[in-house]
Design brief:
The chain has about 450 residues and is α+β, with helices and mostly antiparallel strands.
């Protein structure tokens, strides 16, 4: 059986966490944000708290992790890690005192109430995740181009709503007798509509990831909670993609149709093309068929085989550009164009410009722009929304977008880590953010460990 065909057991998972640089980087950050002021020292180092946090996504509850921490083999394995990472401890330490649920909760509550910790934690997480991604072969192809980018040069994103721990949306329930019974509820939770048009009461998150083409070797490159008043899920994902682009040589972003023209154009500016469906003019329903967007797309420059150039009208249907031609009897026809390549031109004052070089059946070459220009804005034309470099339905689109379910798979894993009730482990947004961060740390550690097993690096170490 290959490494890709089985799930890591608890011992392998613990080894993966203890080999992950993200675990100890977050521990260092915790020490910076929680300096000792008075009272006795904490009984356990910060990295053990991070291990506890990540194992909640394995055991599905903090109470189960507390039982795991008491296991003899776990305490012996952690004792070896103590000697490696805490030189102040006695060299003869055989067993580690198990961390209790109360000790874990105390530090969790302190971090959740510490201003600025989440922002700095997600920033450091993104930096270390980028280093881990490069180490397992993600975004490491210098010859990759925008015309046919490899999967390893693509970012894959999606949003996920975690149902609130309590089903109650207010702190009181009116019984049939008229009595008001107080109920515990999550005041930070909100109503969100997911991709299946289901309304969920909970906490919404955006996740950005990348993979190297091998099963279960997907690295989460960034995550953040979606807050009201900050543009929604797509705007949060754009910010995560921009941050990942600064750290990785990514070329494209795979997303669903939550990415609209304003977001696609924003990503063009940092050198990222978007592979996503185009929102329909009329959505499909039980009584109506889907009607794609159909709009004039201005003009483009055409170059004939003899070298003559002139402007021709372009029409776009569902993101795909067509050449508008007129027959001898005056009938207008749309001519399909085959894309030869995508050109990326960095601007001197910052930003990027994208052009498509397409070929007509006659052999003529047509050059069309993809990012929205000032002239387009003045004319009210959303070019980035209506003209796409990877139009839905084309072979180039299908080759990449077939891997977009990687994000759905990541969401399903996050859902399973919540336990059989599929509800968040904690109340308040700050606490749920820490839980999701623990899941992301666990995922990246396991992905790197699987890569090491597959390539034999773990045996060499």
């Amino acid at each position: 059986m290959s490494v890709d065909d089985y799930a890591l057991n608890l011992e392998e998972t613990l080894d993966a966490l203890l080999e992950s640089p993200q675990v100890f980087d977050l521990a260092d950050l915790i020490d910076e944000f929680t300096p000792k002021t008075r009272g006795r020292n904490r009984e356990h180092p910060s990295w053990l708290w991070v291990i506890y946090l990540t194992l909640i996504s394995v055991e599905e509850s903090s109470r189960a992790v507390e039982r795991t921490m008491k296991m003899l083999w776990v305490r012996r394995r952690l004792a070896a890690a103590y000697k490696e990472h805490d030189l102040s401890l006695e060299a003869g330490l055989k067993l580690v005192p198990p961390m209790t649920r109360g000790q874990y909760s105390w530090l969790r509550d302190r971090l959740a109430a510490t201003p600025g910790f989440w922002v700095e934690a997600t920033r450091r997480f993104g930096e270390t995740a980028a280093a881990m991604a490069k180490a397992i072969g993600i975004c490491d192809d210098p010859s990759a181009g925008y015309t046919n980018p490899p999967l390893s040069s693509c970012l894959i994103g999606d949003g996920k709503t975690l149902a609130a721990l309590s089903k109650y949306t207010v702190n009181g329930e009116v019984l049939k007798t008229g009595e008001i019974k107080l109920r515990r509820f999550d005041a930070d939770a909100r109503y969100y509509t997911n991709g299946a048009d289901e309304v969920v009461f909970g906490h919404h998150f955006a996740l950005m990831s990348a993979r190297n083409g091998h099963p279960n070797e997907t690295i989460i490159t960034g995550l953040d909670s979606v807050r009201s008043g900050e543009g929604g899920e797509a705007a949060t994902s754009v910010r995560l993609a921009k941050q990942a682009k600064q750290r990785l040589d990514a070329l494209a972003v795979l997303y669903d149709n939550a990415m609209r023209g304003i977001h696609v154009d924003d990503l063009y500016g940092v050198g990222l093309v978007t592979v996503a469906p185009v929102a329909a003019k009329v959505r499909a329903s039980k009584s109506t068929k889907r009607v794609p967007k159909d709009t004039p797309a201005g003009t483009a420059t055409i170059t004939t085989p003899t070298g003559t150039t002139y402007e021709v009208p372009i029409h776009a249907i569902d993101g795909r550009p067509y050449l508008v031609d007129v027959t001898q009897n005056g009938k207008r026809v749309l001519v399909e164009l085959d894309e030869k390549k995508i050109e990326h031109r960095p601007r001197k004052k910052g930003g990027s410009t994208f052009y498509g070089v397409l070929k007509a059946p006659s052999g003529a070459t047509i050059r069309i722009r993809y990012d929205t220009t000032d002239e387009d804005r003045a004319n009210g034309f959303n070019r980035a929304e209506n003209v796409r470099p990877f139009p839905p339905g084309t072979d180039r689109y299908k080759r990449l977008y077939n891997y977009r379910p990687t994000a759905e798979s990541m969401n399903a894993q996050l859902e399973r880590s919540l336990g059989p009730w599929h509800r968040a482990h904690s109340y308040t947004r700050e606490h749920v953010e820490l839980d999701v961060l623990g899941f992301a740390l666990l995922n990246n550690a396991k992905a790197a460990y699987r890569h090491w097993l597959r390539t034999g690096q773990a045996d060499a170490a």
